Amino acid sequence: MALLVVHRLYKMKWTPDVRALLGSLAIVCLLSACGNKLVVRTTSDGTTDVAGYETFNFLKKDHGQFLSEVGIRRVRHELGKGMVSRGYRYDPGATPDVVVHYYLYLSKQTRVVETPAYYTAISSGAFVTSSADSTTDREGTLIVDLIDQKTHKHVWRGQATVVSDDYSEAKKLMLAGIQELISRIPKRRQ
Questions:
Q1: Which of 2, 29, 34, 47 has a C-alpha 20 to 30 A away from that of 110?
Q2: Which letter does DSSP use for residue 51 in this model?
Q3: How many CB atoms lie within 10 A of CB 88?
Q4: What count of Cα atoms within 13 Å lies in the side-chain half-sphere of residue 159?
């Protein structure tokens, strides 16, 4: 609604300074409407046929300072289940084709969102009053790497980033991110 008001005001005849102000307000409105979000990205080295691997295991290494033992087991369980669903076989021995490594990075950031309260138009320009609210967002990024056991080369990487100001919503989004990452792992050729 606020964006519509800003758009209608922008289309009126204003001085360039006022138009710049209204454009800035439109950007603030868009950014403040973002709320909770999930972004998933994947990449591969482009030279390795990931679908040609048969077996996997997990790298026994640090999983990020922010994951509890319960969190580590939960992520590992979901990734293991997902790898099996994509056709790979779990090999608890020392010689799997590919090793799965994952870790989580968390950060908090406070952002100030300025919300226009009302507009008063006069012939020489516009007066805009606003209020400012601050919110603390939590950003969590889960990174999953597939590493060739023989060459120790990273052959695939998936990254799920969640931004949320609500902890329980962030957990739901991260689980959705894990599922999305799994769906992007190349299916094993039979």
A1: 2
A2: G
A3: 25
A4: 11
d(CA 46, CA 84): 23
Q: Is residue 7 part of a domain?
A: no
Q: At what angle do helices 167-184 and 69-85 cross, to 10 degrees?
A: 30
Is the pTM higher than 0.85? The answer reads no
Pairing of strands 154-164, 125-148: antiparallel
How far apart CA 48 and CA 50 sit, in angstroms, is: 6
What residues pair up with 38 in beta bridges, in sequence order?
Answer: 162
pLDDT (tens digit per residue) in 25-56: 444 444 444 568 999 999 998 899 999 999 99
Q: How far apart are CA 127 and CA 11, in angstroms?
A: 16
At 15, phi and psi to the nearest 5? -75, 160
Residue 128 falls inside a structural domain: no
Structural element, H or E, at residue 77:
helix 69-85
> What's the pLDDT tens digit per position in 46-93?
899 999 999 999 987 766 655 677 878 888 999 999 999 999 999 988
What token pair was written down for 29? 């409105």
